Input
Amino acid sequence: MVVVTVIDRDTQSEVFAPTASAKSAQELWTELNAFYIAEAWLLDERKLHEWLDMFTEDLLYFMPRRKNVPSREADREIPPYGTDLPFFDEDRKMMLVRIQRMDSGMAWAEEPPSRTRHLVGNLVVQRVEEDGTVHAKTAFLCHRSHAEYDTALYSGYREDVLHPVDGTWKISRRTIVLDVNVVLDKNMAIFF
Amino acid sequence: MAGTKYEILDPETGWLDPSIYTDQEIYRREMTHIFGRAWLLIGHDSLIPNPGDFFHTYMGEDPVILSRGSDGSVNVLLNMCRHRGARLVRADDGNCNSFVCSYHAWTYGLDGELEYVPGEQEVYYGELDRSKLGLKRARVATYAGLVFATWAEDAPSLEDYLGDARWYLDMEFNRSGKGTYAVGPHKWIQPINWKTAVDNCSDWYHVPVSHASAANAMFRVLGEPRFTHDRLFQMKGRAAFVNGHQVQYFKMPEDSLAGQSKSIPTATAEDDTAEAVERLGEFRAKSVVLGTHSLFPNTVLGFRLAIPRGPLKTEFWHFALASNADTPEQQREVLRVHTARNGVTGHFEADDVDNWRQVSESGLSGTYRELGQRVNLGIGHTHTDDVFPGALSDRFVSENNHRHFYRRWEEFMNADSWADIPLDPQKATYEGTAGMNE
Ligand code: FES
Ligand SMILES: [Fe+2]
Output
């Protein structure tokens, strides 16, 4: 059995030590991995309403900017929530606006729609709370091909807060951090 | 090229030459004749609040450092070492005492003075005149916290450059003595010519079409008003044109704002009227509401910059401006709306870029160059007024701005110096206490 042990950045404590009653680390890892793979297929198959159902009602979908700062000022690289102008700061209603507009056939940024491929991996379970809430981190590569010859390659990581609901998981908070300063894409109407 | 005269717009028919978007020679000339001369918006006071603060930004293709000196002064310095041209600043922003070149360590003060050169005595034989090798400085001036710079020694003052456009801009930028602060920006690369993003700023003709999906979804989910052709064609709203700048405005109470959703909202505090009246006078504070606006050459909608990166490449910077007079909750809401609608992820803006790109690329087609574009909407329908300054259009939907903007472009491109560039006469009466920087 693989025991995943990670040091929490904020608390500097060992953050995943499975208890007797909890799922084994391996089971949890396997289950979440399957969850994330299913999620990536929904995105790439443009099933965006089903994808949104993987989030809770009170979701927060957040993508901060990524700044160029000297290495000794690394704490300024990713502006914390509520302090800056992020790329995404969305609740469920705003996500619904973004997804509903795709249904119209007139969301020109995605009409005809992009061909995307999300590869999600490097899953690390960072922390499991008493009530089963899980903090997990994944890395991704996403290739976007649009119209005739436009392409963009996004790489980054995601930090999620997930809750066990009815035998599956729902994400209540997703933070997406891109590995880019100036975004090298004409617009960003795809999801991560 | 002395002697070249650009006539790219027919004022009678609205014919526009699409090669202005794609021609390399035109682009090179824009860099000297427009971006080398105009007052360019490059930053905001709030980005460099303390001595030693710097913010890295651009004047056209030129990377510049906006820095706050130890005496509080604002400096704009070309970010290229006087030795070989390496960059002094590589971070987006920060705080420091001096700028040290990472190539051979020539070291400059916050004001750009060359303070230290390694081996000055030993290998330069004591013969280097450091006093002549400071970083190239731009002229800098501010309006209501917005920082502008120009390379042109002979440019008029920023106040004259803005001219009567300021009479309108004050409604948003100068309403409160507490001022505004800038957050951001989003930065991304669009495959467009920079001019298409600027002229689009006043193009409400495209809104019911380009932004139908976002507006309809916002209607269904959030109860926001729809943008229909009918509504926009009936909507009362006006535009004023001064020195190549464009301001849309509403004249209250005639122009109903009912159902109006501003593209860039300011959550102005409800109880600001008393202060606004004191600062702007009774008439402006109560009768003039600012809509979308652009400043010649490349400022779009408040604080957004279309930074040229080649004929068919533009780096777009999207800041949000929030008012210090607002509550934290109002400020948060302003930033959230800025994030959602515009910028690289904006569900409005995302739908613009392919149009701008195709408009830009039409200049690549020899067949289309023969046809030319048509910016003739509302042609011949501007007028002047005793109270409202500038050339005025009283239709919300028009291409008066496109013609005004490209005529200004010709004036810059065909001028040998600022002496050849006309300024519209200033007629505005400024009531109230607000000035350029009070
Ligand atoms: S290039 Fe800057 S010190 Fe040589
Ligand atoms: Fe638009």
